[in-house]
From TrEMBL:
Cofactor(s), by name: Mg(2+); Mn(2+)
Record field: catalytic activity: (R)-malate + NAD(+) = pyruvate + CO2 + NADH
Keywords for the protein's UniProt record, in alphabetical order: Manganese, Metal-binding, NAD, Oxidoreductase
EC number of this enzyme: 1.1.1.83
Protein source organism: Virgibacillus salinus
Domain of life: Bacteria
Protein name, entry field: D-malate dehydrogenase (decarboxylating)
Phylogenetic placement of the source organism: Bacteria, Bacillati, Bacillota, Bacilli, Bacillales
Length: 362
């Protein structure tokens, strides 16, 4: 039997609600597959913890997480705690300390009715964004001089190392080659004359090693236009930390909203645990109402299973999600339904059992 030890950080707002449904799915898989088991340890870190202790996580939090196979995060952020504190002292700290330098965000239209784009279908919107996740614009380098004075100066420095840039680009090329898809780089070399010119140079250098991969390169503003007007041109996308953050929210907008947006923060070498999360945020305005959409959190379970090498179950979960969104009555209000969060999770598990039997995953 394979056992996977998972650290749970439900976090803030709707985080605990959606993580509960994701855990429910993993426990259901455990019952269906006698060769798999999952252990869970929950940590009460987040904004509420910060308001009580002045810290988003324990001082030795990184050491506590180090031995887990994966981290399952619900959401970070809540009114009363500045966003830069909630982000930098928990989510970004974990990403950096565990060198989770690959961020994987699928942009996949599951049902044509969910996109606001006229005449676009499931075949037109289906790509993977590979975002550099360890440095770039989120390196945290900079300074603030003469604060509060007329001559105040603020410096925010993007950090693009050759190691960091080359490894994410190479990872993207490997993914494109393995899946027989095109690769598109998104940058802004005409304006960012150091960082993005360097990025473009590394794309060209590494690309010579992959002559079989058809490669394109767009400026981020042009790419944003094409994401709306011609999304079918994208298959595998590689981009920097900031641009990846922005365009994947745009991707969520064209595929049904943030309730369907998921992300994996991966250390490919598995020297450290990787982290899986829905990326919709804590949504404090609906927290506690039982109407939060758990599908993104469940989709991140699919990514986690793929990472564990259990692709058969990862596929089963994703296939069930695709079936689920076709039936509006068992969806939450953001997708046009009236179902409660827990009801969606329960219905999902029943459908997963059918999917597992159909594709003989057990």
């Amino acid at each position: 039997m394979k056992n996977f030890d998972i650290a749970l950080i439900p976090g803030d707002g709707i985080g605990p609600e959606v993580v509960t449904e994701g855990v429910k799915v993993l426990k259901a898989i455990e019952k269906m597959d006698t060769k798999l088991s999952f252990s869970f340890t929950e940590f009460p870190w987040g904004c509420e913890h910060y308001l009580k202790t002045g810290k988003m996580m324990d001082d030795d939090g990184i050491n506590k997480l180090r031995h887990f196979d994966a981290i399952y995060l619900g959401a970070v952020g809540y009114p009363g705690v500045p966003d830069h504190i909630s982000l930098w002292e928990l989510l970004l700290r974990i990403r950096k300390e565990f060198d989770q330098y690959v961020n994987l965000r699928p942009v996949t239209l599951l049902n044509q009715s969910l996109t606001p784009l006229k005449s676009k279908t499931e075949e037109d919107i289906d790509f993977l964004v590979i975002r550099e996740n360890s440095e770039g614009e989120y390196a945290g380098a900079g300074d603030r001089l003469f604060k509060g004075q007329p001559e105040e100066v603020v410096l925010q420095t993007g950090v693009f190392s050759r190691k960091g840039t080359e490894r994410i680009i190479r990872y993207a090329y490997e993914e494109a080659r393995k899946s027989n898809r095109t690769l598109t780089s998104i940058s802004k070399g005409n304006a960012l004359n150091y960082s993005m010119v360097f990025w473009d140079e590394v794309i060209e250098e590494v690309g010579k090693e992959y002559p079989d991969v058809e490669t394109y390169s767009y400026l981020v503003d042009a790419a944003s236009l094409y994401l709306v007007s011609d999304p079918e041109r994208f298959e595998v996308v590689v981009t920097s930390n900031l641009f990846g953050d922005i365009i994947t929210d745009l991707g969520a907008g064209i595929t049904g909203g943030l309730g369907l947006a998921t992300g994996a923060n991966v250390n490919p070498e598995k020297q450290y645990p990787s982290m899986f999360e829905p990326v919709h945020g804590s949504a404090p305005d609906i927290a506690g109402k039982g109407i939060a959409n758990p599908i993104a959190a469940i989709w991140s379970v699919s990514q986690m299973l793929d990472f564990f090498g259990e692709e058969r179950w990862g596929k089963a979960v994703l296939t069930t999600i695709q079936d689920m969104v076709k039936e509006t009555e068992m969806l939450t209000p953001d997708l046009g339904g009236n179902a409660a969060t827990g009801d969606v999770g329960d219905s999902f598990i029943e459908k997963l059992k059918i999917t597992a039997d159909t594709i003989k995953v057990k």
